[in-house]
Task: inverse folding
């Protein structure tokens, strides 16, 4: 693969900032095998973006010649008291996720799994020195903006900063945690960080904090941030989805029946491509996995299916009214069933995988 092809492959995932494009372009010239870290938070419910999109993008990085290290952020799950803070349970969940990725065709040659707790325990002095240095070089207000958009709201509406000491829901850990996350990113000395794989915006401000810190502390290794678009919620009402409705997304644990119900209930406005979650799933999952999308005819048994090889072509036809939204949903449903069947069969027949799934 040529240098231009390596750059194009990595660039296709998406940059955290357009300012990093030139840095990414010259990176393959500087390093034969750049080190790319992927941040993952252990979760027993694996969103399809984390289960499939992550695999597709990690495989791209391996193809582009990177050494990829998937960092399981078990230590942060522990201090957040997720899963009662039990590190054994947290790491079991992490192992379950790793099994999902392996089954979903993760390119294992060139990929290493790393536990954040091990990295910190191996280099505690280096890590905590970084944490304190980030803290020394940032204000309390900057830390608040990393975890709470309410601060920005207060600035815009009231013209004055929100006082963190007057808020009962703020504890010191929340203000200090961005320093710890930033230090965790810097500790790895990665050339590239692949973030935003888990449908979570928690690290967006930390990403900016890391870049700012590296820029201010001239000489520090400044990682390039790759961040692909997140999949939108399947249901139209975001507020409804945020209160725990399982229909808002597809998860790797969904059986065929659940998957069918979710897709059929999904928001898919007729002749509207922009903001259409079904089309975004097709763009980022179906086309990326199969290289095409097959849309059945109006009647399930009538034949007359059509195969699209380019998303642009698919969008043009959809906006013209053919295919219809019902046909698009059927195409998405069938494609996802084929992908997820691979994982389902493995977890049903492999004793190790079955044990991990049962532990969830």
Result:
């Amino acid at each position: 693969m040529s240098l231009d092809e390596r750059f194009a492959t990595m660039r296709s995932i998406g940059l955290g900032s357009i300012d990093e494009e030139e840095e990414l372009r010259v990176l393959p010239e500087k390093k034969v095998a750049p080190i790319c870290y992927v941040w993952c938070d252990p979760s027993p419910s694996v969103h399809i973006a984390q289960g499939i999109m992550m695999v597709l993008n990690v495989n791209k990085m391996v193809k582009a010649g990177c050494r990829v290290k998937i960092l399981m952020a078990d230590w942060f799950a522990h201090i957040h008291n997720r899963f009662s803070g039990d590190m054994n349970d947290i790491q079991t969940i992490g192992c379950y996720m790793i099994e999902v990725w392996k089954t979903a065709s993760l390119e294992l040659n060139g990929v290493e799994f790393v536990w954040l707790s091990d990295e910190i325990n191996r280099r505690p002095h280096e890590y905590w020195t970084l944490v304190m240095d980030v803290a020394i070089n940032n204000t309390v207000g900057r830390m608040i903006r990393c975890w709470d958009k309410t601060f920005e709201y207060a600035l815009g509406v009231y013209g004055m900063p929100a006082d963190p000491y007057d808020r009962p829901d703020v504890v010191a850990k929340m203000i200090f945690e961005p320093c710890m996350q930033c230090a965790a990113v810097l500790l790895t000395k990665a050339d590239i960080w692949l973030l935003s794989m888990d449908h979570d915006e928690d690290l967006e401000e930390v990403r900016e904090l890391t870049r700012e810190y590296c820029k201010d502390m001239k000489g520090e290794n400044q990682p390039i941030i790759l961040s692909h678009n997140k999949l939108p919620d399947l249901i139209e009402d975001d507020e409804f989805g945020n209160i725990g409705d399982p229909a808002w997304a597809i998860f790797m644990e969904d059986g065929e029946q659940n998957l069918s119900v979710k897709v059929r209930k999904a928001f898919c406005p007729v002749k509207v491509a922009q903001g259409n979650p079904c089309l975004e799933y097709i763009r980022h999952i179906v086309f990326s996995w199969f290289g095409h999308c097959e849309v059945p005819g109006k009647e399930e048994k009538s034949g007359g299916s059509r195969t699209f090889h380019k998303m642009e072509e698919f969008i043009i036809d959809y906006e013209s009214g053919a295919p219809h939204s019902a046909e698009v949903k059927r195409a998405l449903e069938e494609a996802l069933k084929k992908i997820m069947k691979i994982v389902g069969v493995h977890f049903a027949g492999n004793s190790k995988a079955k044990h991990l799934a049962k532990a969830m």
